[in-house]
Design brief:
This protein is an all-alpha fold. The protein is built from eight helices and no strands. The protein has two domains: 31 residues; 105 residues, Chromosomal Replication Initiator Protein Dnaa, Chain: A.
Length: 150
Amino acid sequence: MNCNEINLHNVYCLTKKGMTFQEIISKLRVEKMKSSDGDRIDILIDTVCQFYNITYDELKSRSRQGYKVEARRMYCYLARVLTPKSLKDIGLKIDRDHATVLHQYKNMAGYVEICDTNMINDVNNITEEYESNIEAYDFHAKDNVNVQMA
């Protein structure tokens, strides 16, 4: 389905639920205002950098310092799990190729699989912070659109 077919399908589904035309337009407008995938990946990068207390340049660096490697590994894992981005797109954000992202993802998945409580706690903490950052971003984006429409 292309974008127009998806919108038509959404309108059809909402009319079947008994919504009026104005309600449908409002609902679709809110959906459009939500953060895009590109925004979400940038928010994830910011969240991971904040959690590990590093800069974006340090995340992208070729450094093998443990805390930087762990931050990159966490980014690759969470980007794969929380966003619909491809391995290539995830890697481009940190100057890595798709194979490196897949390797980092599998490493992190291994830690989660063997129930490493420290890693699982880190994953949960970063995910919670990421979700609250997404909500805040969406709220501010919606607020800005409402101000512009007034």
